[in-house]
Design a protein that fits this description.
single chain, about 290 residues, mainly alpha, Tetracycline Repressor, domain 2, 2 domains, about 70% helix
Length: about 290
């Protein structure tokens, strides 16, 4: 049963909350132990909040998930965990989130609550509205990165926020594209009827271009060069481009993409690329090279 509850809480999806660390790294505070601990706390607060909305979503989607070729194996849809137990889990997770709110500033708390409310509305209705569903997913990622900035009271580049928005849109579009290919002729999401493979591919191309262009401009912007006192950050751009291309390859050629977290932690080239990006970014930002 413990294993089933861990599946219900979707611990593997916690990796999405890593976005909260972006402002810490790019504000040159990664090695500030006090700020690092604050961000760690914020990360776990978002993780609990994420599990809360995942359980809520599974409760709402229980019937649709039973008709899905993959989601039917989820603890609630498969009947391994009862709906009543899931509701109790929501209550406990909510209490944990509330208990730790006073440990953070008001801006962070507001964003966290907004994140939960957004996801509740997403589960109830927004996921059924074409395009709005994808922007709702993107908003969740943007809230994470902005929360990472406000929790330690630092500014974040507008270019970095735009990069986050486009990469979030990209991942959301690719998820829809994968669902279209996977659940063809299966009624699991009403919104899928509003999409097509061609339309999804066009949106993915635009979003991918937005990621690469915004990040490239961020790396060479006068503000970035002034703060980091170097122009070397541009050399991290190839890792971003490779990551986008690799993800598209996995979706288009290997029929993956419905589970973003699984790709990020299971595809060896993607893992190596991410680690190299982090390594080179830290080495450049903190003037180690």
């Amino acid at each position: 049963m413990i294993k089933e509850y861990l599946k219900l809480f979707r611990l593997h999806q916690w990796i999405k909350n890593i976005f909260i660390f972006v402002p810490l790294v790019f504000s040159k505070n990664l090695f500030d132990s006090e700020l690092f601990l604050i961000v760690i706390g914020g990360f776990f607060e978002f993780c609990i909040a994420s599990s809360l909305v995942y359980v809520l979503n599974d409760i709402i989607d229980i019937e649709a998930d039973r008709n899905h070729p993959v989601k039917k194996e989820r603890p609630l849809a498969s009947g391994k965990i009862s709906k009543k137990s899931a509701i109790y889990s929501v209550i406990i997770l909510s209490l944990i989130v509330i208990v730790f709110l006073p440990f953070f500033n008001i801006l962070f708390d507001t964003l966290l609550i907004t994140f939960v409310i957004l996801n509740i509305f997403y589960s109830i209705e927004l996921k059924n509205i074409v395009i709005i569903d994808i922007f709702s997913i993107a908003a969740g990622f943007m809230i994470r990165i902005i929360s990472g900035a406000v929790v330690i009271n630092v500014e974040i580049s507008n270019w970095l926020i735009l990069t986050t928005m486009f990469i979030s849109l990209f991942l959301g579009v690719m998820k829809r594209r994968s669902e279209l290919a996977l659940v063809e002729n299966v009624s699991t999401r009403k919104v899928l009827a509003e999409y097509s493979i061609t339309f999804s591919d066009q949106m993915a191309t635009i979003a991918a271009a937005g990621v690469i262009i915004c990040y490239a401009l961020y790396s060479v912007s006068s503000r970035t060069v002034s703060i980091f006192e170097t122009e070397k950050l541009i050399f991290t751009t190839p890792f971003v481009v490779f990551g986008i291309f690799r993800y598209m390859y996995l979706v288009y050629m290997n029929s993956k993409g419905e589970n973003t977290s699984k790709i990020l932690v299971s595809d060896l080239p993607m893992i190596i690329n991410i680690l190299l990006y982090i390594l080179f970014s830290v080495l450049i930002i903190y003037k180690i090279i």
